[in-house]
Amino acid sequence: MTPFFSVIIPLYNKEKYIQNTLNCVFNQSFYNFEVIVVNDGSTDRSLEILEEFNDIRLKIIYQKNQGVSVARNTGMENAKADYICFLDADDSWKTNHLQAFHDTITKFPDAKMYCNRYVTQISKNTFIKNNFIDIEENYEGYVTDFFKSSLINRVALTSAVCIHNDIFNEIGGFDKTISSGQDLEYWIKIAIKYKTAITKNNTLIYNFLDENISLSKTHINNKTIPKFSQFLSEEKINKSLKKFLDLYRIEYALKYHIAGNSERTKELLQNVASENLKSKTKILFYFPSIILRPLLNLKHYLKSNGIDFTVYH
């Protein structure tokens, strides 16, 4: 029987999480799916734990370490289902995750991207429920203004997304040259071209614990970010897209400013509309990086202890 869903899991050194992640998939109430785990050259016990699973729906693909985008693309290339779901190896689904997608796909078949709702775990005991602008809590259906609705919390979060395989066939997969924000860029490309629908179910626990730690250790100058300039023509006629892109231009510009990279900072800010750069954020660019670095570390520390805030809104 052809699976209704192909679940793509990129795996690289997630021995702490992979068992629970796979358990949450195989415990789904909707059972017609395949699981494609792309082992991206793991060097810990991830592969050993993975190979302990005995389920005919599980397919393991082995490749040398090439990054998460290549791993996801490899998974999509081997997917048999019409609908492709993504799950990072440290996130977890509730048992109704795939059922929620199936129900919404049945009711709203004209969409090509479907999004479940999610909560974000920022500390051991702190979970943040995410809301979206102009989308009611119990609303199910097509998203009227994807980019406006994503200005505070993103409607499309990787482990909460399902796409029709037409997308992969028509526009390809994730950009393997991008090392930071590759998923963000992919959802932008999709949302510009295709309809998106959202379910009314909160089915994902997004693990921000490790990401919160790793963010402070990652040097932005060693990362390749999305080329936002590729969307210049679209943002001229879509005010919500313009505001959404400017939000991320500012976010990355601030990271470069903190890293002391004034050239990249100016390059990003020159395309930001003045009305989209809030006063409290603008002030930060006047402070030297020697002051901002400890403040950023403090922000990460507070978030890891359950206190979250943003300077971008």
TrEMBL record:
Residue intervals of the Glycosyltransferase 2-like domain: 6-136
Name of the protein: Glycosyltransferase family 2 protein
Record field: transmembrane: none
Keyword terms: Transferase
GO terms assigned for molecular function: hexosyltransferase activity
Xref: InterPro entries: Glyco_trans_2-like, Nucleotide-diphossugar_trans
Pfam family, one: Glycos_transf_2
